[in-house]
Amino acid sequence: MSADIRNPSEYRSGVGIVLCNPRGLIFNGKRRDRRDPPWQMPQGGIQAGETPEQAALRELGEELGIADVTLVERSNEWTYYDYPDAATSRRAVNFRGQRHLWFLLRYDGDDDAIKIDAPHGEFIDWRWRSAAETVDRVIGFKQAVYRQVMRHFADAIDRIGAGASADQTWSGPLRLRRIGS
Predict the structure, then answer these.
(1) Rg (CA), the chain
(2) Confidence band of 177 (pLDDT split at 50, 70, 90)
(3) Angle at the Cα of 40 (from 12 to 68), degrees rounded to 5?
(4) Which of 21, 99, 117, 151 falls 20 to 30 Å from 7 in CA-CA distance?
């Protein structure tokens, strides 16, 4: 089903975060629930009165205890995925799936500052992984979206990994592009 004919009210709105370290590797968190495979990137809902940018920064603070990031790029088109069935998610009772705006953030802090044991943390372990490994390790119903997001941010992730400075990596504080462009 094409994203442009989906009814947004059937999907929980949120943000997805591609947190990239200076080597071009991506944060993968191991979920606390028993999902198999359990790995994913940080994500979360947008609260009432909150901008997507505010939601992304809040989620990083809640889930990882960090704020030392640089916004590299943001998608301006929603990605969608459907839940497989109500038995796999308590949210599937209220929503058909989720839709996300995605943010590529460069992590500028030390690995020791990442605290997954935060009160609202969703992860029990974490690793830095390549884009391909990130896609391979996420649950099946999210893989198409993860592939799309990794293709979308590929050039910027490569520049970060090559050690490009902020002014070489992006122009201005934020670049908006459509997912898939």
Answers:
(1) 15
(2) very low
(3) 90
(4) 151
| 3-state SS class at 108 | coil
Pairing verdict, β 11-20 and 43-45: antiparallel
Q: Which of 83, 94, 105 is nearest to 153 (CA)?
A: 105
The tens digit of pLDDT for each residue in 52-84 reads: 999 999 999 999 999 999 999 999 999 999 988
Task: For residue 43, give the nearest of 103, 130, 110, 108 by alpha carbon.
Answer: 103
CB 50 within 8 A of CB 138: no
Measuring CA to CA, which residue among 84, 102, 87, 94 is closest to residue 145?
102
Label residue 85 exposed, middle or buried (CB < 10 Å: 0-12, 13-18, 19+): exposed
Residue 28 has pLDDT above 70, yes or no: yes
The predicted pLDDT at position 104 comes to: 97
* Nearest-5° Cα angle at 14, 12 to 19: 145
- At 79, phi and psi to the nearest 5? -105, 150
CA atoms within 13 A on the CB side of 165: 1
* Domains within the chain, CATH numbers bracketed: 3-171 (3.90.79.10)
- Interval 109-129: pLDDT, tens: 999 999 998 776 799 999 999
* pTM, 2 dp: 0.86
